[in-house]
Amino acid sequence: MGKLLSRLSLYFTNTKSIEIRQERVPPPGPGEVLIRSEFSAISAGTELLVYRHLISTQQPLDTVVPSLSGDFRYPVKYGYSVVGKIVDTGSEIDRSWMGKRIFTFHPHESLFPASLTELLEIPGDLPPLDALFLPNMESAVNFIMDGRPSLGEKVIIFGQGIVGLLTLRMLAQFPLKSLITLDPLPLRRRISQQSGAHLSLDPTSQGDLEKIVSILGDENSSGADLTYELSGNPEALNQAIAFTGFEGRVVVGSWYGSKPVHLTLDETFHRSRIKLISSQVSTIASGFQGRWNKSRRFQTVWQMLEKIRPSQFISHQLPITRAADAYRTLDENPGDMLQIIFTYPDAEEDDV
Fold first, then answer.
1. By Cβ atoms counted within 10 A, which residue in 75, 78, 92, 342 is the most buried?
2. Could you tell me which CATH number the domain at 142-283 has?
3. pLDDT tens digit string along 10-26?
4. Cβ–Cβ contacts within 10 Å for residue 229, how many?
5. CATH assignment of 3-127+309-351?
């Protein structure tokens, strides 16, 4: 008699509604392997849009990742950061893959088959909890490439969630004149200053905003040279533009979903010749495409994960069975949460 495996899968079933369903798992096909999840990470900005139903149901989950086919109509599996081990192989796969630890872009679930082309083998000296941050680090590396920070520049980052903090950690390695971050949550501001920000302020405080004006204004140039909007708050984009100086760049890394964005593109904006730069990780900016591809970018991402060790930003580890609590807290009271990861029990087996 064989064994029929089952798994736990997370579904977004309606607005602010989560279900953990037990499902049968298909065996790996001839060219596939079977992955048992050890950890998966919530990408809070994107996943809260799904949880709050702030994404068009006509929009595809992803145009590149095979495990994210379909659209955002409920019920839907979503998530894209899983670390696990290979526990079985198809007939065409060398058994030397057994036991290897991998990263894959996949929804939150405990056991699943996947093609080798969907997997990234984790370097042996990198802890698995650091590897979980690969998608966010890839976005942060892409933001740096799109923003092209330069010697002596004044830089602002709106938003100090995980992607904002990783972007900060890389920018802190540049010889900048000033590096200011903004976030309304005290925990994030405190960690931001510990992570390399020269100053981390509250964008809802008039006094803090006046401090920024004072710091950015000097006799040579007024305003930031480079501003990142990574907060996910549409209102922050107007602030980002307002603090950017003549011919400055604003990199828009936030995904607002269906939230409307009302911009004030007045005379000051036009006279200042400010550049708005959209940034999305699925492609590489044209200025780099002659020398860079995604493989080279992934090499850089692994190096940055090794250097920064972002597992330090994990604030909560919860079993997948408590997913509804995790999303509810992120939605209603995110003040003491930074990065939540899910842990997984062993898959159940039933005789068949």
1. 342
2. 3.40.50.720
3. 999 999 999 999 999 98
4. 27
5. 3.90.180.10
